[in-house]
Amino acid sequence: MELVFPELETERLLLKRLEDKHAPALLKIWSQEEVMRYTDTDPFTSLSEIQEEIMIMDGLFKAGHAIRWGIFEKSNQELVGSCGFHKYSQQNKLLEIGYELGQAYWGNGYMTEALRAVITYCFNVLGVNRIEALILKGNERSERVVKKLGFKFEGVLLEHSYYKGQFWDEESFALLRKDWK
């Protein structure tokens, strides 16, 4: 039986499956230095890299480990970013969210709107109890988004990740089902 990818809708946005046809638009976003600055990935430079990433995300969805939605403006169907979850533990009823938005769309409240739909899906459909966000120190925009959504700061994980040739401290935020409004 084929798994049905969940589509989510908000007032201004559609969250749906990323496909190969979206690779050029995704490359425009994931090739931006500022967009990828706080991720564990260097900016993408080719369509083939994007297509490979879409294939990996699709495999993780089919295996029940993650979902990554493309974020599209309803008004013009333009891809503005992506968001989703990974490190999903059905046993422990928790997962970690991740997201990025094209720089041209910063400051419009799109990510808060998109993540509100994702969080609702995770609590109501998947039945998770805890949603985590690990944010690199210094990523103030991302911190503002999760705080707006009710995530609580739990502490700093010193040298928690290693990529781009160095260790990185990450700030841990979490949202519990009982605290979701």
Q: Tell me the helix content.
A: 25-40%
Number of strands: 8
Q: Strand-and-helix sequence, N→C?
A: EEHHHEEEHEHEE
Q: Which structural class fits the helix and strand makeup? A: alpha+beta
Shape: globular
Calculate Rg over CA atoms: 16 Å
Sheet with most strands: 8 strands, mixed
Beta content: 25-35%
Strand arrangement, major sheet: 1-2-3-4-5-6-8-7
Low-confidence region ranges: none
Ends apart, CA distance between termini: 35 Å
If you average the pLDDT, what whole number results? 95
Keywords, please?
181 residues, alpha+beta, 8-stranded mixed beta sheet, 5 helices, globular
Describe this structure in words.
Helix 4 links the parallel strand 5 (94-101) and strand 6. This protein is of the alpha+beta class. Helix 1 crosses helix 3 (47-62). It is globular, with a radius of gyration of 16 Å. The protein is built from five helices and eight strands, in the order ββαααβββαβαββ.
How would you summarize the topology of this molecule?
Layout: E1 8-9, E2 13-17, H1 23-30, H2 33-36, H3 47-62, E3 67-73, E4 79-89, E5 94-101, H4 110-124, E6 130-136, H5 140-148, E7 152-163, E8 166-176
Parallel strand pairs: 5-6
Antiparallel strand pairs: 1-2, 2-3, 3-4, 4-5, 6-8, 7-8
Helix pairs in contact: 1-3
TL;DR of this structure?
By secondary structure, this protein is of the alpha+beta class. 29% of the residues lie in helices and 35% in strands.
